[in-house]
Amino acid sequence: MLGILSAGIAPGLALLSYFYLKDQYDSEPVYTVFKTFLFGALLVFPIAFIQHVLETENMIESSFINAFLSSATLEEFFKWFILFYTIYQHVDFDEPYDGIVYGAAVSLGFATLENIFYLITYGLEHAIGRALLPVSSHALFGVIMGYYIGKGKFSATSKYKWIILSLLFPIILHGTYDFILITQKNWQFVMFPFMTFLWWLGLRKVKKGRELSAQHFRNQLDF
């Protein structure tokens, strides 16, 4: 059991540490980041209940609905809700890159607990595959969500546009990820280029988030 817990937790904490340490200015309080991580983990229970109801009531009639509604929209909306309504106005959210840290935290909290339950059910031999695909993809969905949340909070104009994109883009990417898994027989051949693109996009948002934070602090110095 200790091995499963370690294998289930390690990828999420490693990825969260990576994005956390990329914050080059004012690092976020560990307590606030960890609290956001826990909020994300707790989302597993209501989301799993809703998905169970949708499945037992035969409300999922196609692969597209399964991928983009039951999974992507449901999971990303709840993560976005936590990020927007508990972190967006928080005093510690004081630079654009912070959105990436908190977005990764809430997503990886969800992915970590989900990963632990999966490994308990199906075995430790799935740990590497889970770390490379579901855990890392959730992290990158969170990074992209957090980037646009941060951009929206600190933009002088078009705030609502960036906030909407912070929910819309992760849903599209998450739905595409699940749709590949559900519909492609040899999904590995499609998933590899998709994950390569997702990592490229996520790391690009990390770079741009750091640039936005640098500009934010330069503007503060000008005043």
Automatic annotation (TrEMBL):
GO molecular function: metallopeptidase activity
Keyword terms: Cell membrane, Hydrolase, Membrane, Metalloprotease, Protease, Transmembrane, Transmembrane helix
Classification via InterPro entries: Peptidase_PrsW_arch/bac (IPR023596), PrsW (IPR026898)
Membrane-topology annotation of the record: Multi-pass membrane protein
Pfam families named among the record's database cross-references: PrsW-protease
GO biological process: proteolysis
Subcellular location: Cell membrane
Coiled coil location: none
The protein's Enzyme Commission number: 3.4.-.-
Cellular compartments per GO CC: plasma membrane
TM region positions: 6-21, 33-52, 64-88, 100-121, 127-150, 162-180, 186-203
Top class in the EC scheme: hydrolase
Signal peptide interval: none
Top-level taxon of the source organism: Bacteria
PANTHER family, A to Z: PROTEASE PRSW
General function of this protein: Involved in the degradation of specific anti-sigma factors.
Family: Belongs to the protease PrsW family.
Record-given protein name: Protease PrsW
Organism listed in the record: Cytobacillus dafuensis (Bacillus dafuensis)
Organism ancestry: Bacteria, Bacillati, Bacillota, Bacilli, Bacillales
